[in-house]
Design a protein that fits this description.
This protein is of the alpha/beta class. 45% of the residues lie in helices and 15% in strands. The chain is built from 13 helices and 11 strands. Helix 1 (2-17) packs antiparallel against helix 3 (28-80), helix 3 (28-80) packs antiparallel against helix 4 (86-103) and helix 10 crosses helix 12. The protein is elongated.
Length: 390
C-alpha cells in the first residue's frame, strides 16, 4: 500500500503542475479517470487494512477481557477462602491488563511495518549514496591566474555509455569572452558541469590558474566561478531570499543594482511588496523571461573571475536580449565570460563586443572579438579566435 500511496501522490502533483498542458491537449478527463481509478484501488486497500485492524483490536480486547475475567474468577475463590487479600486480587487483575497493554499495539505495528521499511530503505539509499566527487578540505594552493585549460578531457555518464565528451583540449585566457555553440546533446552543458565539478572527467583534466581543479576545496572553487544554468532553479521564497542565495550579506542597494543589470528592476519596483514579493514554486508567479533574468541577477551579485551563462537570453524579446547582453558584458568586464548557446545566429554577438581597446596600449583579451567554439557529438568540430585541439 505504501507504493500505491506514493504513486498517487506523484500523479496528483504532476497533474497540478501540468494542468495547463492537460487542458490544452484535452487530456484532463482521461487523467482524472486514471486518478479516480488509482484512488479507488487505494481506498479498497485501506478498507481491507481497516477490517484487519478492527478484527485484531477486537480479538486482543476479547482475549484480554477473558483473561482478566478468568483471573478474577480464580482469585475470587482465594479471597473467599482468605488465601489472598482483595487488594492483591485487584493488583493481579491490573497487572494482567498492563501485560496486554504491551501486546495490543503489536498487530497495528506489524501492519505499518512495510511502510516503515520502505521509508527506511529510501532514506538509507540516499544516505549511503557515495558523493560524485570528493573535495579536499583545503586547497593545495591559490591560483596563479585564472586561465582555464581543458587537457584531453573526456567524460562518460556510465562505463558502458558512449562518450558525452571526447578529447576536449581548450585554452581560455583570463578575460576572454567565448561562445560555445552546439546542437542539443553536443556536450555543452556537460562541459560546464565538469568545470564546476559536479562530476570529474573520466579522461584528462581541467586547470584553472595552472592548478587542477581537483586540488581546490569546494569553497575556493565556488568563489572562482558563477554559473547561470539553462534550467536555473528558483526557490519558493521572496525575490530577496532568492537573490541572497548568491550572497547572504548582500545589501538592498547591491540587490537593486543586480536587478537593474538584469533589466528587472522596473518590474520589481512596480510590485507592491518589492523585493519581498513571493514568487511561488520555481518562480511560478513570474513569466519565463522574468524568471530567467532573476537567475541572471542572482549570479551578478557574485564577483567571481569566471562567468558562465547557459542560454541567458532564452525567452526574451530582441530589445531586452540586446540590453541584457550588453549589461552582462559591462558587469563582467575584465573577467572570463563563457556563453553557451544552441545557435550563435540567435545571439546578438555585437551586444557583448562593446569595449573599445586602449589605443595607447597593447590589446588585452577583453578587447578581442568573442571567440567561438563549436561542439558536435562531444567533440570540438570548429574553433575561431582561440587555441584548441580539433
Amino acid at each position: 500500500m505504501t507504493g500505491r500511496i506514493a504513486a498517487l501522490r506523484t500523479r496528483i502533483v504532476d497533474g497540478l503542475q501540468g494542468a495547463p498542458e492537460l487542458i490544452v491537449f484535452g487530456a484532463s478527463d482521461s487523467y482524472l479517470d486514471v486518478l479516480r481509478q488509482e484512488n479507488r484501488q487505494l481506498i479498497d486497500d485501506q478498507r481491507r487494512m481497516s477490517h484487519i485492524r478492527g478484527f485484531s483490536v477486537a480479538l486482543t480486547t476479547l482475549v484480554s477481557g477473558l483473561t482478566v475475567g478468568v483471573v478474577l474468577y480464580l482469585g475470587a475463590d482465594g479471597v473467599y477462602r482468605r488465601e489472598m487479600d482483595g487488594a492483591d486480587l485487584a493488583l493481579v487483575a491490573m497487572a494482567t491488563l498492563a501485560a496486554f497493554e504491551g501486546v495490543i499495539p503489536l498487530p497495528a505495528a506489524y501492519q505499518f511495518l512495510g511502510r516503515t521499511r520502505e521509508a527506511a530503505h529510501r532514506l538509507t539509499e540516499i544516505a549511503q549514496t557515495p558523493a560524485g566527487v570528493a573535495f579536499p578540505e583545503t586547497s593545495v594552493k591559490a591560483p596563479d591566474s585564472y586561465d582555464i585549460i581543458f587537457e584531453g578531457v573526456g567524460f562518460r555518464y556510465a562505463a558502458d555509455a558512449p562518450p558525452a565528451l571526447e578529447d576536449i583540449s581548450l585554452h581560455i585566457p583570463y578575460g576572454r569572452r567565448i561562445f560555445i555553440e552546439g546542437d542539443t546533446g553536443a556536450g555543452k552543458t556537460t562541459l560546464v558541469n565538469l568545470l564546476v565539478r559536479f562530476w570529474d572527467p573520466t579522461e584528462g583534466r581541467i586547470l584553472i590558474g595552472g592548478t587542477d581543479i581537483r586540488s581546490y576545496s569546494e569553497a575556493d572553487l565556488r568563489r572562482l566561478i558563477s554559473v547561470v544554468s539553462q534550467q536555473a532553479h528558483l526557490f519558493s521564497a521572496s525575490i530577496r531570499d532568492n537573490l541572497k542565495i548568491a550572497r547572504e550579506d548582500a545589501s538592498e542597494a547591491e540587490m537593486q543594482r543586480a536587478l537593474a543589470a538584469a533589466r528587472l528592476i522596473t518590474f520589481v519596483e512596480s510590485l507592491p511588496d518589492g523585493l519581498d514579493t513571493w514568487i511561488g514554486e520555481n518562480g511560478r508567479e513570474l513569466s519565463g523571461g522574468q524568471a530567467r533574468r532573476l537567475s541572471v541577477a542572482r549570479a551578478l551579485l557574485r564577483d567571481t573571475p569566471v562567468w558562465v551563462f547557459d542560454e541567458p537570453t532564452e525567452g526574451l524579446d530582441t530589445v531586452t536580449e540586446t540590453e541584457l547582453m550588453a549589461s552582462i558584458h559591462r558587469h563582467t568586464r575584465g573577467k572570463t565570460l563563457i556563453l553557451i548557446t544552441h545557435r550563435l545566429a540567435s545571439v546578438n554577438v555585437s551586444a557583448v563586443d562593446l569595449m573599445p581597446p586602449d589605443p595607447a596600449g597593447p590589446p588585452r583579451e577583453e578587447h578581442l572579438p568573442p571567440a567561438v567554439v563549436v561542439l558536435g557529438r562531444g567533440r570540438i568540430i570548429a574553433a575561431r579566435g582561440i587555441r584548441s585541439c580539433i
